[in-house]
Amino acid sequence: MATPHISAEPGDFAPDVILPGDPLRARRIAEEWFDDAAVVSETRGILGYTGTRGGKPISVLASGMGMPSATIYATELVRFFGVRRIVRVGTAGGVAPSAKVRDVVVATGAHTDSSMSELRIPGVHFSHVASFPLLAAAARAAENVAWRGEHEVHFGMVMSTDTFYKDRPAVVEGLRAHGVLANEMEAAALYAVAAAEGCEALAVLTVSDRRDAERNLTAEEREKSFGNALEIALGALGL
Ligand SMILES: O=P(O)(O)O[C@H]1O[C@H](CO)[C@@H](O)[C@H]1O
Ligand SMILES: O=c1cc[nH]c(=O)[nH]1
């Protein structure tokens, strides 16, 4: 039974889904990290694949960019395709001085400037938090990665914003002053969907750029440089 945005049948998605923003990153994850990956949805060019890892089923679906898009895909995955755990593997801008380009940020929670959050429970400033079991498993996975030392893994708060181009430096300064690690555009929405729909969610992000970096990742590198984050994400899922 297809939904307005996903052209798949019940059972086409595994209970565990990796959710990158970029459809080409979704294809790369399926082709390079899954066994026997097959396309399960390509409506609007938002690519979805299901395959296996170590014999266990796993899917990947792009979310597109921004919270409205991520909310649509995460909600449909849970409501119509029986998905139970969603791990976003995305890129982010480093905010804290410690979050260097190519480091990994695991979002324990997400602030947001999105009005979607205000609309969720009228009168309530909703707190967007990661699934504790996924977070704990990610922390265990992070202890064993071979690349630690070359690149760091940070656990803490991120900012999920509606505005990629921030022309208000005071906002970034305020976030930094409050210990926010990185800026991205979907984690808060994903965490809100998980709370509302009763599933588990986590966001594992690769720092792709910083204002003060000598060199930021190119668009091609942002598509390809997800391996370290994906290793933590798959570790969190026990895959
Ligand atoms: O690389 P992805 O996962 O798309 O994530 C980040 O990149 C996009 C902005 O360029 C936004 O979606 C932001 O959250
Ligand atoms: O600076 C950045 C980089 C990636 N994604 C964002 O939302 N911001």
From TrEMBL:
- Pfam families linked to this entry: PNP_UDP_1 (PF01048)
Q: What is its EC number?
A: 2.4.2.3
The superkingdom listed in its UniProt entry is Bacteria
* Residues covered by the Nucleoside phosphorylase domain: 17-231
> Is Glycosyltransferase a UniProt keyword of this protein?
yes
Keyword set, alphabetical order: Glycosyltransferase, Transferase
Catalysis: reaction(s): uridine + phosphate = alpha-D-ribose 1-phosphate + uracil
| Name this polypeptide is given | Uridine phosphorylase
The protein's organism comes out as Gryllotalpicola koreensis
